[in-house]
Amino acid sequence: MIASFLRYFNRWWDPMQSSREAIITLRQQTDMIDRKGEYLEKKIDEETEKAKASVLTDKPVAIAALRRRKATEQEFERLQDARLQLEIQINTLESANLNARTLGAMQRANTAMGDTHTQLTALHSALSQFREYNTRSTIDVLRSEPTCSTLPGLDGDELKAELEQLEQDVLYEQRVESGELPSVPIYTLPIVDDGAEEEELEQLQLALAM
Fold it and tell me: Which residues of 142-152 are buried (b: 16+ CB within 10 A; e: fewer)?
């Protein structure tokens, strides 16, 4: 009983499995109909041969054989109609299975496309945030770099004076190099001995005291 319930539950839970089982059952029925049809065809042939054999010698036997053949042919036709109905049901179930698989594939594809779109959107958002962060970082770095006006101990007048002095030095060097001004020799001042200077000072004081 439990096994039957589980089979029923599985069929209810998986329609595809239920339809596959139905298709298998229907094909088994068509196989049985085919075997029965082969038997009826042989019987029709046998009754036909009996009627031929008795048509000249024993007409009642021939008529009975023809009646049996007619009944067998009618049964064969009903059997073929039943087989046709089974084939229609099989084709319907197979088409339904194919449509269900196609729909499932389309749904999975749509889900995958949705996931891909979500991932692309997240990536685009991350790239936008990254570019915005780089822009803010660059602006912060530029704002944090010191300028001439913010350097400690250096005002505009002092900078202007140094610039003018540097300009004069460069012009002077250019004029010296071009020969417009003679180069000024650099003289080395003699080194003064502190002891000799003190001795001269003492002699001067003695001379004044006399």
Answer: eeeeeeeeeee
Task: For residue 152, give both structure tokens.
Answer: 């400690």
- CA distances to 86, 104, 166, 178, 186 from 169, rounded to whole Å, are 114, 88, 5, 14, 16
The tens digit of pLDDT for each residue in 129-161 reads 777 777 766 666 556 655 545 545 555 677 777
Which structure tokens are listed for 30?
């068509």
What backbone phi and psi angles, to 5 degrees, belong to 69? -65, -40
In this structure, what token pair is assigned to residue 93? 């179930």
Domain definitions of the chain by residue range: 2-141
* CATH number belonging to the domain at 2-141, selected among 2.60.120.10, 1.10.287.1060, 1.10.10.10, 3.20.10.10: 1.10.287.1060
